[in-house]
From TrEMBL:
One of its GO terms (biological process) is glycogen catabolic process. Keywords: Glycosidase, Hydrolase. This is Glycogen debranching enzyme GlgX. InterPro entries: GH, GH13_cat_dom, GlgX_Isoamylase_N_E_set, Glyco_hydro_13_N, Glyco_hydro_b, Glycogen_debranch_GlgX, Ig-like_fold, Ig_E-set. Belongs to the glycosyl hydrolase 13 family. Residues 468-483 have a biased composition (Basic and acidic residues). PANTHER family: GLYCOGEN DEBRANCHING ENZYME. The keyword Hydrolase applies. Residues 161-572 form the Glycosyl hydrolase family 13 catalytic domain. NCBIfam families: glgX_debranch (TIGR02100). It comes from Streptomyces nitrosporeus. One of its GO terms (molecular function) is amylo-alpha-1,6-glucosidase activity.
Amino acid sequence: MPLGARYRTGPDGGAGTNFALWAAGAESVVLCLFDAGGRETRLPLTELTHEIWHGFVPGVRPGQRYGYRVHGRWDPWTGARWNAAKLLLDPYARAVDGDFTLPPEVYGHVRDWPDQHVADTVRDDRDSAPYVPKGVVVHDDDDWADDRRPKTPWADTVIYELHVRGFTRLHPDIPPRLRGTYAGLAHPAALGHLRRLGVTAVELLPVHQFAHEDHLLRRGLRNYWGYNSIGYFAPHAAYAASGTAGGQVGEFKQMVRALHGAGIEVILDVVYNHTAEAGELGPTLSLRGVDNRGYYRLAPDARRYADYTGCGNTLHVVRPQVLRLITDSLRYWVTEMGVDGFRFDLAAALARSMHDVDMLSPFLAVIAQDPVLRRVKLIAEPWDVGDGGYQVGAFPPLWAEWNDRYRDAVRDFWRGALPDVRDLGYRLTGSSDLYAWGGRRPYASVNFVTAHDGFTLRDLVSYGHKHNEANGEDNRDGTEDNRSWNCGAEGESDDPDVGALRLRQLRNLLTTLLLSTGVPMLVAGDEMGRTQGGNNNAYCQDNETGWLDWSLLEQPRWRRLTELTSRLLALRHAHPVLRRRAFFAGTPQAPDGLRDLAWFTARGTEMTEADWYAPAATLALYLSGRDIPGRDATGGQVTDDSFLAVLHAGHEPCDVRLPGAPWAAAYELVLDTASEEQAEAPGTVHRAESVLRVPGRTVLLLRVREPSPPGSGGRDQPRMPRS
C-alpha cells in the first residue's frame, strides 16, 4: 500500500521505491526498470498480499522509467489474455514517458493474422518494450499550502470548456515554446482573456494520458480531443513544456495554482468508462494484460467485450478493484493535483450495475459517501450508447448534468423549429421538470448551446449540414441531428444580409444562454466567432481546424461579440435574480402579491394554458428580484432588480406591449440584440403598457422601474441588488 510506484524511505532507512500492482489472476509479475539507453532490468515481485503483487526496491529514485510484465494463461475464449511479452503501463503511473505509436508488436495477438475473425486468439510473442511508453517514478511532497481554491458556489459558476493545446497553440502573446501546454494556459495572456470574460471555471478536455487510435494513425491523423485514456493518474505528457520525465506533474500543478490565483476553478473532463485498449482486436497496453477479466465487462462470449461506450470496451465498475482505481484517481487529482471537480464522460456507463443503469449503483454510492469527492463539483454526461442509457434528469443529488434538452430547445427556438414555447419556458428557468426533485437545485442543469462535440456557435448559424471530409471517414462520422440553420447560405458568405443575420443569431444564442437559470457553459472561442469549417466532429483535427484562432479578435465584428459576452457575464454576476439558488415558485413571494416569475404574450397579457399550446415565436418572462430565496452573508434577505426579457424568434418584426401595473411603472433598456450598435441606447426608458416594435430575431432585456416610494420626488426607481 498504496498502489503504484511510491518513492519513500525503506525498512533499513535507505531511500527507494515501493511498487504495488493489483493483478488477481496472474501467475507472476515482473517489474521492469529501464535506464536512459533503454536497457531493461527485470525484478520479479515475489510478495503477494490480498491479490496485490508488491516489493520495495532500494535505490530507485524519481525519474526512473518502469513497466510490468504479467504472466498468466493465454485463453481468450475464457477472457484470459495474459502475455508476458508485452510491457504494460502501470495503471497507477503518475507520469508517462513516450508516445503510443501502435506497431504490430504492441498487440497481444497477431494483429495482421490473415483470418481476422480469429486473429485475437493467436498470441503474439514479440517483445513490445521498445515500442511502448514507460511509467515514471515521481516524488510528490507538495502540501498545497500556498494555494487558495476559489470554491465558487454552484449558482455563481460559469463554465468555459477548453482544450489545453488548442486554446494556446496560436496565441500570439504566449512564447512559442509554451504554446499548447499547461504552462501556456498558466501564462498571463491566457489568464487575462479568461478574467476579462468573467468565467469562473475552466473545464479541460481530457488531460489524462491518452493514446491515439490505430485507424487514425493509419490515416496520418491523431486523437486530438483525448477521449481515449490509458493513464488515469498521469497528466498527458504531450501538453507539457517541461518534458516527459516527471516534470509534467509539477507543470500541471503550477497551471492549477495560476488559475486559482485568477479566481478560476479547474474541472477535468474524465473518461473512466473505457480505455484506449478498445475491443478484442485492440492493443495490449495496460489493463488488458494486467487482468482482462478483472477490469473489463465481458460479453457472454468472453472473447468479446460488453460495449456501452461505442469505443470497444467498458470498465467493469461494479468490481471493487475497478471502483478503487477510479476513486483513487479522482482523490489524487483533488488532493495532490489541486483540481476542483470533474465532468464524467458517458457517466451512465459508470452507473450501470450488472447491465442496466442503476442510480443506486456502487459507483454512485461510493462517490456519495466519499469525504473528498462529495465536496467537489460533479457533472455527469448523463447518457451512454447502451439500452436505457439516456438518463437526463435522473442522476441523484450532488450531481449536476449536461442538459442536452436545453441545447435542443434553444437551437430549435432560434431556428424557428419549435411548435410552441412550452419546452423553452422550462429550459430558460432551470428545467424544473427535470431537476426539481430530491432537493436538487436549478444549478443541477448545466446549460449549453454548443460543446466540443458538434458545431461551434458560428458554424451553427453558418451550416445546415456537417462537413467532416477531413476526418477521412467519407463524412459518415458526427451527428446528423445538428438543429442548425445556415441563414440562407451554406458556409462562409460575402452577402452582407446573411452576415448580419448570422451575427444577430450569435448574439441571440449567447444572450439566451447567459440569462437562463442554471449553470451556463461556453465553449472556448465561441465568444469570438471560432469556426471549424462545418466540421461537427473535429476529434482528430490537431491543426488550425481544432485550434482557437486568436487573430479573430483583430476583426471588429468578433471583438464586439467578445465584448458582448463579457458584458453579459458581468450582468449575470451583478444580479442574483439571474443566478438563483432555488427554483421559481410561480407564486407571490412578497406582500405586494407579485409572483417571482410571470410569463407574457406579445400582447402584454399573462400567458394562459391555451397560449402555451398555441404556435408562437415570441415569449416574455418577468423575473422578480423581490425576496429571492436565500440569505446574504449577514443573514439578510437577498433582493435585486426585476427584469423583463423578450425573446422574439420570428422573421418579421413584432409589436410587443410592455406589462403595466402592478408589474412596473416603466422599463429601462439594458440590452437589444437587434444591432451591434444597439437600435436604442441602453438606458432608454419606456413607460409601462407602451408598445415596442421588436425587430425579427431579437432579444430585449429591460430593467423594471417600480413605482416611486413616498418622498422620493416622483422618480421611478430600480431595485438595487443586495447579496
